[in-house]
Amino acid sequence: MLTTARRDSDNCPNASSSERFGDRLSPDALGELESLKVFSDHEANTVLFMEEQAPSQVLFLLTGQVKLSMNSSTGRRMILGIANPGETLGLASALSDSTYDVTAETICPCRIASLCRNHFLEFLTRHPAAYKNVVRELVTDCARAREQVRALGLAMTAPARLARLLLEWCTDGQETKDGTRLCCSLTHGEIGEYIGASRETVTRIFSEFRYRDLLESRGSTLIISNRRALEIYAGAERVSLSKGYARKVA
Length: 250
Prior knowledge:
Elements: H1 27-36, E1 38-42, E2 47-49, E3 57-63, E4 66-71, E5 77-83, E6 88-89, H2 91-96, E7 103-106, E8 110-116, H3 117-126, H4 131-154, H5 158-170, E9 174-176, E10 179-183, H6 188-195, H7 199-211, E11 216-218, E12 221-224, H8 227-234, E13 238-242, E14 245-249
Helix pairs in contact: 5-8, 6-7
C-alpha cells in the first residue's frame, strides 16, 4: 500500500534559508516581522485552525506540510491542497476579518511561526511594501483552488483525476534516472478526499497504475517513470475558453 496513517517527518520538506513572505522586505521591516512572531512545534494531525473559527492569527509554515480542507453540509470532507514550507496560512481571513473558510491540519511534525492578527495588520500599515507579498500569497491560494476545480470539474473519471493530481505533484518532484520521485504523506483515504473518491477506489486505481507500469510505489515514495504515458492516460488536454467557446489545447 502506498501510504499509511504513520506520519514520518522525513517525508515532509523543510523551509529554505528564507521564508517566502519575508522576501524583498527591507532589513528593518524583516527584523520587525521576526520580532513579532511566536514560534511553536506541532505534532502530526494537529488542527491549527478550523472552518468558521474567528481569525486570531496569521501562521507562517517553516517546516513540514499542512493539509487544507473543507467540509460540506453533510459532513463530507474535501482536501483543497497541501501547504508547503514558506507558505502563509489564514491570510485572507485575517485581512477580511471573516471566519476561516478552510481547516488547516498538520500532516507531519511542523514548525510554525504565528503572528497575532492585529499585530500583523499594524505591521502592514507601517510597511505598505509588504502588501506585494500579501498579494503573492493570495494568488497562491487562488491558484490552488483553481487547480482543484480543474481536477474535479474537467476530469470525468476517478483514474483521470488521480493521474492529474500525480502530474501536478510531479512539478515539485525530484528527477532521477528512474523517473520523477515523489514523497506522498497522504493516506489513500485522504487522496480520495482530494479527488472526490472513496479509499477503496483510490487503492484500486493505484493497483491499476502499477499494473500498467505508470508508476512504482516504495512505501511512501512514488516513482513516475513515464510522465508522458500518465498524461495520455489522464487525457491531460487542457480545456480553455476563447472568445466564448471551448477548445482543447495541448
